[in-house]
Design goal:
Two copies of one chain form a homodimer.
Chain A lengths: L6 H11 L2 H10 L4 E2 H8 L3 H13 L3 E6 L2 E6 L1 H14 L5 H6 L2 H10 L13 H11 L8 E3 H8 L6 H10 L3 E3 L5 E4 L4
Antiparallel strand pairs in A: 1-3, 2-3, 4-6, 5-6
Chain A binds a DNA duplex through helix 4.
DNA sequence: GAAGTATTTCGATACTTATAGAAATAGTCT
DNA sequence: AGACTATTTCTATAAGTATCGAAATACTTC
């Protein structure tokens, strides 16, 4: 199993399957092996066209061929499909995927103590250092360069704790977010 | 969750992701929400191009937008990705997916009795009617219009039972396959 | 080796679409 | 209301590619 797939491989994979006849070929080969001639008849296209599609499918590692008498029999490389599906599932994980990985042991421990498994804040620590860990835990939910209404800020914060008003004030007090004087707009402060 | 996806939807899904910049957009949005402007800057393309891509991504149900002050914030619809991944995993099941569905209750019962969960034949039934169910169970592993060598026939049959010689003879005797006089080639007999 | 078969390669064409820029639109701020 | 901003729509262009038919290739059979 490959260590990590290059983006270009992924693009190729999708591009290959993003063509009606190729997808139909994959659907057919998922049931049994076919010869190129049979595929052409099933799809209503010429032999050279089928050949072209099979070449692209093979280049993406989706089909393999074996020779049998006059014919070549093509069959689906089911591993390629399921591998890709797993890659997709990994990508589609909940939220904050990248921050989670870069956390120090200390941060991870603090979060384990003060948040539930789904990321909500149970209680607020007394020590400032631990407190900042929680605020940085929240921060990725806000984008840089965007001005948020107070209503929207509360909406987002409510995912972490019901006391949105205090959370909101703390984010400003500790310098993670800024508040506009008049209009009541908030935005994330660019780090360094 | 949708009942069943149309093929055209699947094609659209893959086509949408089979474009480098769109895949990069999905990658970015998987981490946090972006504005269209930020995406354009990150990809190095114009605003109208980003708009075009976002439209296609939205049409495929992959991204959603919410308005925030001047900006529109786009975020990934993670459900769409994981749903699709599950569909893919379902497709990538072992072998014989379609025949399994069209089986009568009787056939299903016979197979449950005489085959293991992975499709191998445990023992051979005495009654001819049940015996034919097993042979038809094997048959999809052979393609129409292809002449197989005896060696290859045995290879395929060995997936079902070790006694490949008897299986092979039975397939011929019951009229499911034919054997060439001299050369020792076998082929599947067209039904009807 | 000669004849026969399936498949691939080549050349040409038609269709799709990614992209940029300009103009139009929709929404927000003062 | 008027100024301002981000986004979308429109138009045109360039690049990619699905498709076919013909010729070339590879392999099997006798």
């Amino acid at each position: 199993m490959e260590r990590d797939k290059k983006t270009s491989d992924l693009v190729e994979f999708f591009k290959v399957l993003g063509e009606p006849n190729r997808l139909r070929i994959v659907g057919l080969l998922a049931q049994r092996a076919y010869t190129a001639e049979q595929l052409g008849a099933a799809l209503g296209v010429g032999a050279s066209t089928v050949s072209h599609h099979l070449t692209r499918l093979a280049r993406a590692g989706l089909v393999s061929a074996r020779s049998e008498s006059y014919y070549n029999l093509y069959s689906l490389q089911t591993n390629a499909l399921s591998d890709m599906a797993k890659t997709l599932l990994a990508q589609a994980q909940p939220v904050r995927p990248e921050s989670e990985q870069e956390l120090s042991d200390y941060d991870r421990k603090v979060l384990a103590t003060f948040t539930t498994t789904d990321g909500r804040i149970k209680t607020f620590p007394m020590q400032e250092r631990k407190f900042r860990v929680l605020l940085r835990h929240i921060l990725p939910s806000f984008s840089h360069g965007v001005r948020y209404t107070e209503k929207r800020v509360n909406e987002i914060l409510s995912k972490y704790n019901d006391d949105t008003a205090r959370l909101r004030r703390w984010l400003v007090d500790f310098g993670y977010m800024a508040r506009e004087g008049g209009g009541g707009k908030y935005w994330r402060v660019d780090e360094k």
